[in-house]
């Protein structure tokens, strides 16, 4: 490794930035894939993989991707909840990898809710 | 490291790899985590990151799951598969692994919502838990080395110094010297090269800030050092780190290697003219190396001894060159200041102490760990908000800041803001940041001893004042903890401490007396308690307490002995042991509040031994089998004594006076004898036949009890005074107090005491169907349980929570069990009536507000939460006071404004000659056993008074009455033992009648339970362990006596401490005449071995040698029981004893054997010490001739009335909290209130219970004129 120059610090920092962002729990948006038994059976894994793949391809760094358990509406799995900063969460149902790619582009990046896939706005409160 | 970062993960599992978590197997957990992730196909999605110390060491190993921030703690290997599947695969965070704050029930999933984390401000620890300390890129990603780049490229050295100066940063190593100024001095200093040193030689017990920083973020330290090097013009640096920190060292070395690889350490860093090289130097763990000149000496390869300053290291340091030393935390803070600016840093903290400070929070605290907080935060916030309070809901007592060099800050200063100045004002120091929390079970004398032991060990030995002074301090403290201390020792401690401060060269010596001085300042009463009253209320000093249960018992009941005998099945012998100190075991076995069980050592990790139940078993056994313990008056005496009141205090006094041979008449105004035992405690807790049995025993001794006779009404007190030689007033506190709320005079509002009295006396009692009892003491619970048995719908209203209820815990449980609804945090504010008859009460809900100094949260009314409850009968059980009206008619008895009788607490004598008083009449509502203790003392005082002797008590260390062999238990037995369930009447049956609820243990139960006793009384004294080596030496020298048992050397062990203060021997004889007596008369008495051990060498060796410990127990027990009451040795006898013993302790050096022992245990420093430093107090003591000592001792006994008063407080330990006879819900808090008048008034207004506070205040008042006691309150 050659000796670092001052500007190299920023390069290294950029490269590792996502790591630290993730750890700081800060993000512009959060995608929760519901991965209860029902979700997994219905193909939630494929949704998660599609997202991971898109993240990699599009170099998305400021979106938190996480999983949670069954959302209670097992018949409509796979489901995902999209939460943009300062906006109410939106639940999408009956997802396919294609749909989630679309949602990622339109909603998460573009900021426009795709109503036809959405179940409802809002989310039950967890006390 | 490249690969790790290149991958994209959706989850980062931040697993702590600090030393504490690593010790709890966090590396093993990492392995299993990765394995499981792979199994579930998640290894590409979740990355396990090993971080530095997260700080919450108490619950390690800990892991934070990012980005969600879910915090898991106390992880074990077997939980991992479940965790991985549930959370990481299925997205269901696992609740049972989440954190629940102590004493709360709701889990907190997220790290930042946990008080421990949310209240911290991280500067030095900014990267902890967020980066992998072994990956430099992660440090760089968090702005690492940016500050260095800025310092090198944009700032001149002068500007760097100015920035640091402006920030107000002060040295975090302890002294708090301004860092910028230090740098400036060094930069201006002539000499080349210059050096930078990082002091990572962290040595305070319980402190690990430096280790944690180096482990979690080593680069921050390196970066800070380089910025400092640039500022002062140095190109070489040293990190001096303890060899005991292997993980820190490894990470430091990795960090250095990686920085070198990046060219961040080396030539022309960032292509500037700045070059830097660094060395790691391992320290061998000597505490003194934390001192900068000693540290430099150690780096240079010389012995680590401090040297005189100036010259300061800034002028002449390492290799004689200008050197700048700063602590790890200071270095780690520097880059943030350069990055964010001086202004930002200076905006945090207080006027003179800027920024944050890292503390290691340890001791008696729930959330042990490492915390970084802004300067100026209060101790209260640290202890309660971050630390989560004291484990087990115990009382916070003090906090030691600054480690062994710091001081002990008492609970009453809990609102103290933490900064350099404030801590110094309080007599402590900031130090490097150790915070040791102490609770009520910590003895401050013991704590001082601990720290002095440490510094004495760690003294480098260069200065005599430090080396020998600390040794003498330690001896004095050991002596006090052993129970051999004198008041003069306290003065000696103080004078010697000041001498050490003045006479020592470096910080170690100058600060080592701080723990002693600060505890003397804030806890002088606790020292006095040790030296004068032979008490250790924290129940720590084994030499004084023997066993906690015996020491805390107001009657000094020898629980370990009788429990030991029960375990052997020797019930008859056991009851004799009980009877010796307790004339009412049937009663105490049922209704005592049993402070012994609260402090039982077995209770620390399971159920305490059921001491009260065992006593009851014995008493029941005695009654059932008609065992007659021959108690006979010693002689027949003509003097008549009157006792007014036949409660536990009066009965006990009458019993002991009758044993002395006096003619005692007890006057009782009620139709039944027994006082509160008869009219206060309901039948189902204390059957009347049981009470009558005990009273009959006392009658049989010749005591006459006249019921239905009220003194002052039926017979004037004056007349009694004429007829009787002495009078003991123990009329109790039978007058219930009002709540002072509107409408309280309505029909249907009654007083609990009257209610219970009427029911107990079989009178016709009419109460309504809906009953509310107000209060939280035993009266409230009793009244409610009685009402329930009368078939009423019964509720209790109490304004605090269950945890604060002063009633006996098991009684509260029984009440709930019986179906009584207890409404906590609710209090009536108004009685609503129609036609003068109660119909309902208006109540208000309370919430617990801020914690006070004792750590209890105050109840505050919730505005708007008023509600009405329909009720027919409201029973007030708030508090009581004595009804002294009949006694005050024209007779000059001093009555306090709280209606209690004023007495001299030492002698219980009232202001009228020949009239003594005790029990609740003096203390206000208190416990059965406290009243009995008063009765016992009064009997002794009255006896002395009649014999014309000087009144006064004798104070002795607690000792078992006899030696009882422990029963041997197999491993299996030990595992299977558990507290047998107390047989009791079924609820359905019991609420129908007044039959006794608890039925008592069976013989088998009793034996099982007795076997659980840990027999603390047999524990060797702490000091003994320290002298084991000496013991070995002695054993070798004393080869002439090969047949000697183990005990002999043990007995001899007491010598080393004794030796320096040989002249005290005669004094000790005076204090423990009983022992001397035994030594003389019953050399074979093995039971008193422990005592003998402490005696001067001659008698000890003699006594211990001939008789092996294994002597048959039968033999031991009999003499022990027949030996006349220890405490009752008359002064005349004492003198005789002295004479007898004195020749036995001649110049011991003449004995050849003695000489050898001496040689073996001679401490060389001690010899040198005497000529080296002249400490007046010590010298005085050592020069005293035995005769003088005797004279002085006598004087001591005769004078100092003010100390006698303290005794009253000492004698009444914490038991007030759980009174037996007439408890009051307000009791505990009132005590606090009395000490805080402003708050008191406020609270009274709210609650309208001015009088309720009265009896307690009285107690406080008795001591208020003694400055030391005030501090305690």
Describe the structure in your own words.
The complex is a heterodimer of chains A (127) and B (1273). Chain A is α+β, with helices and mostly antiparallel strands and 127 residues long. Chain A has a single domain, classed as Glutaredoxin (3-Layer(aba) Sandwich), CATH 3.40.30.10. Helix content of chain A is 42%, strand content 19%. Chain A contains 4 helices and 5 strands, in the order αβααβββαβ. In chain A, β3 and β4 form a beta hairpin. The N and C termini of chain A lie far apart (51 Å). Chain B is α/β, with parallel strands linked by helices and 1273 residues long. Chain B has 61 helices and 29 strands. In chain B, the strands form 7 sheets. Chain B has a 5-stranded mixed β-sheet. A 5-stranded parallel β-sheet of chain B has the order 16-15-14-17-29, sandwiched between helices. Chain B has a 5-stranded parallel β-sheet with strand order 19-27-20-21-22. In chain B, α30 packs antiparallel against α43. Chain B is elongated, with a radius of gyration of 34 Å. The chains are: A alpha+beta (127), B alpha/beta (1273). Chains A and B meet through α1, β1, α3 and β2 of A and β1, α6 and α7 of B.
Set out the fold topology.
The complex is a heterodimer of chains A (127) and B (1273).
Chain A: H1 6-24, E1 29-34, H2 37-42, H3 44-58, E2 63-68, E3 80-84, E4 90-92, H4 97-109, E5 118-121
Parallel strand pairs in A: 1-2
Antiparallel strand pairs in A: 1-3, 3-4, 4-5
Chain B: H1 2-6, E1 11-16, H2 19-23, H3 26-39, E2 46-51, E3 63-66, E4 70-72, H4 80-89, H5 115-118, H6 136-141, H7 146-153, H8 157-167, H9 179-188, E5 195-200, H10 209-216, H11 218-232, E6 236-242, H12 246-261, E7 277-283, H13 292-299, E8 323-327, H14 328-340, H15 342-346, E9 356-363, E10 369-374, H16 379-386, E11 396-401, E12 407-410, H17 420-425, E13 434-439, H18 444-458, H19 464-482, H20 487-503, H21 507-511, H22 514-522, H23 524-531, H24 542-545, H25 548-552, H26 559-567, H27 571-581, H28 585-591, H29 595-598, H30 611-624, E14 640-644, H31 648-660, E15 663-667, H32 676-679, H33 688-700, E16 704-706, H34 717-723, E17 726-729, E18 735-736, E19 749-751, H35 752-760, E20 770-774, H36 778-789, E21 793-798, H37 809-817, E22 821-824, E23 826-834, E24 837-851, E25 857-861, E26 867-870, E27 873-876, E28 880-881, H38 885-888, E29 915-917, H39 920-923, H40 928-947, H41 971-976, H42 987-990, H43 1003-1011, H44 1022-1026, H45 1028-1037, H46 1047-1059, H47 1065-1071, H48 1073-1081, H49 1089-1094, H50 1097-1104, H51 1113-1122, ...
Parallel strand pairs in B: 1-2, 5-6, 5-8, 6-7, 9-13, 14-15, 14-17, 15-16, 17-29, 19-27, 20-21, 20-27, 21-22
Antiparallel strand pairs in B: 1-3, 3-4, 9-10, 11-12, 11-13, 18-28, 23-24, 24-25, 24-26
């Amino acid at each position: 490794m050659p000796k670092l120059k001052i500007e190299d610090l920023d390069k290294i920092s950029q490269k590792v930035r996502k790591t630290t962002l993730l750890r700081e729990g800060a993000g512009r948006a959060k995608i929760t894939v519901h991965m209860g038994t029902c979700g997994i059976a219905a193909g939630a894994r494929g949704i998660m993989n599609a997202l991971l793949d898109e993240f990699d391809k599009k170099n998305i760094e400021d979106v938190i991707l996480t999983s949670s358990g069954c959302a209670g509406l097992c018949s409509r799995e796979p489901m995902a909840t999209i939460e943009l900063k300062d906006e109410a969460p939106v639940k999408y149902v009956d997802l396919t990898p294609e749909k989630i790619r679309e949602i990622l582009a339109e909603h998460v990046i573009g900021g426009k809710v795709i109503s036809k896939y959405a179940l409802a706005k809002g989310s039950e409160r967890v006390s | 490291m490249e690969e790790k970062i290149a991958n994209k993960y959706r989850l980062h599992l931040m697993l702590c790899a600090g030393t504490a978590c690593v010790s709890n197997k966090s590396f093993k957990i990492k392995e299993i985590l990765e394995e499981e992730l792979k199994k579930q196909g998640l290894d590409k999605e979740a990355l396990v990151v090993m971080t530095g110390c997260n700080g919450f060491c108490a619950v390690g190993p800990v892991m934070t799951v990012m980005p969600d921030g879910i915090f898991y703690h106390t992880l074990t290997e077997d939980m991992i598969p479940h965790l991985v599947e549930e959370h990481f695969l299925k997205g269901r965070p696992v609740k049972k692994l989440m954190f629940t704050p102590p004493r709360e029930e709701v889990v907190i999933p997220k790290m930042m919502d946990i008080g421990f984390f949310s209240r911290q401000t991280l500067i030095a620890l900014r990267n902890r838990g967020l980066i992998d300390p072994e990956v430099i890129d992660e440090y760089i990603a968090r702005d690492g080395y940016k500050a260095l780049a800025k310092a090198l490229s944009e700032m001149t050295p002068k500007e760097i110094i100015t920035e640091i100066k402006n920030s107000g940063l002060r040295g975090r190593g302890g002294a708090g010297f301004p860092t910028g100024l230090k740098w400036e001095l060094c930069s201006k200093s002539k000499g080349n090269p210059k050096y930078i040193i990082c002091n990572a030689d962290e040595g305070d017990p319980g402190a690990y800030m430096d280790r944690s920083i180096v482990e979690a973020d080593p680069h921050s330290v390196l970066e800070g050092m380089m910025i400092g090097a640039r500022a002062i013009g140095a190109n070489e640096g040293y990190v001096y780190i303890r060899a005991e920190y292997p993980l820190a060292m490894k990470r430091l070395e990795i960090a250095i290697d990686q920085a070198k690889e990046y060219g961040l350490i080396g030539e022309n860093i960032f292509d500037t003219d700045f070059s830097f090289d660094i060395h790691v130097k391992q320290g061998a763990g000597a505490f003194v190396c934390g001192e900068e000149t000693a540290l430099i000496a150690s780096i240079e390869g010389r012995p680590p001894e401090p040297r005189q300053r100036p010259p300061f290291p800034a002028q002449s340091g390492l290799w004689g060159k200008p050197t700048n030393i700063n602590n790890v935390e200071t270095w780690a803070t520097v880059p943030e200041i350069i990055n964010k600016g001086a202004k930002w840093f200076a905006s945090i903290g207080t006027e003179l102490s800027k920024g944050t400070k890292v503390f290691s929070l340890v001791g008696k605290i729930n959330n042990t760990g490492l915390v970084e907080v802004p300067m100026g935060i209060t101790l209260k916030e640290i202890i309660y908000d971050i630390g989560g309070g004291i484990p087990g809901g115990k009382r916070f007592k003090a906090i030691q800041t600054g480690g062994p060099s710091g001081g002990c800050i008492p609970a009453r200063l809990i609102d103290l803001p933490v900064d350099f100045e404030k801590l110094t004002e309080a007599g402590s120091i900031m130090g490097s940041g150790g915070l040791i929390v102490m609770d009520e079970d910590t003895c401050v004398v013991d704590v001082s001893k601990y720290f002095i032991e440490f510094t004495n060990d760690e003294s480098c030995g260069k200065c005599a004042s430090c080396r020998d002074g600390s040794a003498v301090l330690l001896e004095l403290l050991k002596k006090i903890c052993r129970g051999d201390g004198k008041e003069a020792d306290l003065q000696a401690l103080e004078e010697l401490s000041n001498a050490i401060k003045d006479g020592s060269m470096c910080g170690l010596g100058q600060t080592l007396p701080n723990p002693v001085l600060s505890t003397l300042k804030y806890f002088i009463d606790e020292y006095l308690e040790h030296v004068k009253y032979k008490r250790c209320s924290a129940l720590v000093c084994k030499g004084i307490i023997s066993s906690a249960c015996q020491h805390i018992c107001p009657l000094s009941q020898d629980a370990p002995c009788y429990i030991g005998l029960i375990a052997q099945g020797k019930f008859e012998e056991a009851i004799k042991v009980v009877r010796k100190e307790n004339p009412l075991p049937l009663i105490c076995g049922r209704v005592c509040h049993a402070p012994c069980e609260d402090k039982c050592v077995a209770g620390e990790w399971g159920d305490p031994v059921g001491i009260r139940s065992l006593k009851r078993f014995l008493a029941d056994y005695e009654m059932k089998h008609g065992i007659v313990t021959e108690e006979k008056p010693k002689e027949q005496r003509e003097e008549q004594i009157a006792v007014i009141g036949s409660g536990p205090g009066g009965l006990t006094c009458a019993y002991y006076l009758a044993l002395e041979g006096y003619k005692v008449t007890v006057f009782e105004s009620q139709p039944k004898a027994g006082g509160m035992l008869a009219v206060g405690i309901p039948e189902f807790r204390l059957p009347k036949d049981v009470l009558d049995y005990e009273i009959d025993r006392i009658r049989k001794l010749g005591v006459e009890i006249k019921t239905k006779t009220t003194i002052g009404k039926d017979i004037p007190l004056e007349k009694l005074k004429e007829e009787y030689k002495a009078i003991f007033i123990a009329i109790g506190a039978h007058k219930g107090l009002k709540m002072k709320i509107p409408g309280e005079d309505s029909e249907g509002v009654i007083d609990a005491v009257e209610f219970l009295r009427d029911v107990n006396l079989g009178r016709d009692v009419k109460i309504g169907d809906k009953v509310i009892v107000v209060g939280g003491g035993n009266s409230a619970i009793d009244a409610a349980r009685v009402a329930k048995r009368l078939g009423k719908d019964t509720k209790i209203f109490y304004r605090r929570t269950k945890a604060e209820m002063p009633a006996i815990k098991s009684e509260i449980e029984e009440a709930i069990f019986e179906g009584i609804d207890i409404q906590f945090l609710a209090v009536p504010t108004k009685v609503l009536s129609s036609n003068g008859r109660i119909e309902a009460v208006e109540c208000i809900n309370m919430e617990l507000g801020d914690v006070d100094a004792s750590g209890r949260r105050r109840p505050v009314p919730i505005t708007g939460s008023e509600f009405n409850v329909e009720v027919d009968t409201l029973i007030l059980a708030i508090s009581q006071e004595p009804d002294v009206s009949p006694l005050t008619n024209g007779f000059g008895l001093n009555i306090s404004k709280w209606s209690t009788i004023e007495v001299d607490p030492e002698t219980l004598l009232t202001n009228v000659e020949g009239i003594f008083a005790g029990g609740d009449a003096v203390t206000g509502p208190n416990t059965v056993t406290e009243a009995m203790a008063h009765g016992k003392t009064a009997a002794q005082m009255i006896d002395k008074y009649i014999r014309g002797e000087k009144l006064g008590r004798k104070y002795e260390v607690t000792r078992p009455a006899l030696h009882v062999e422990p029963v041997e238990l197999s491993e299996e037995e030990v595992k299977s033992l558990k507290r047998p369930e107390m047989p009791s009447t079924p609820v359905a049956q019991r609420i129908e009648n007044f039959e006794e609820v608890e039925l008592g243990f069976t013989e088998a139960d009793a034996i099982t339970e007795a076997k659980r006793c840990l027999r603390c009384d047999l524990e060797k004294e702490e000091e003994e362990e320290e002298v084991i080596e000496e013991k070995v030496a002695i054993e070798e020298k004393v080869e002439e006596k090969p047949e000697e048992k183990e005990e002999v050397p043990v007995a001899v062990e007491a010598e080393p401490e004794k030796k320096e203060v040989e002249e005290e021997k005669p004094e000790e004889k005076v204090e423990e005449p009983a022992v001397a007596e035994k030594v003389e008369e019953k050399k074979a008495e093995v039971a008193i071995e422990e005592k003998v051990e402490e005696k001067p060498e001659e008698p000890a060796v003699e006594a211990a040698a001939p008789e092996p410990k294994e002597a048959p127990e039968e033999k031991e027990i009999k003499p022990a029981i027949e030996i006349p009451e220890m405490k009752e040795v008359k002064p005349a006898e004492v003198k005789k004893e002295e004479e007898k013993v004195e020749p036995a302790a001649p110049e011991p050096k003449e004995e050849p054997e003695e000489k050898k022992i001496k040689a073996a245990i001679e401490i060389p420093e001690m010899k040198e010490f005497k000529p080296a430093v002249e400490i007046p107090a010590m010298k005085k003591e050592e020069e005293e001739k035995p005769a003088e000592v005797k004279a002085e001792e006598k004087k001591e006994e005769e004078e100092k009335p003010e100390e006698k008063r303290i005794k009253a407080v000492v004698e009444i330990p914490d038991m007030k909290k759980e009174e037996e006879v007439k408890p009051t819900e307000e009791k505990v808090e009132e005590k606090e209130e009395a000490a805080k008048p402003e708050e008191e008034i406020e609270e009274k207004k709210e609650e309208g219970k001015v009088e309720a506070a009265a009896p307690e205040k009285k107690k406080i008042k008795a001591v208020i004129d003694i400055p030391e006691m005030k501090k305690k309150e």
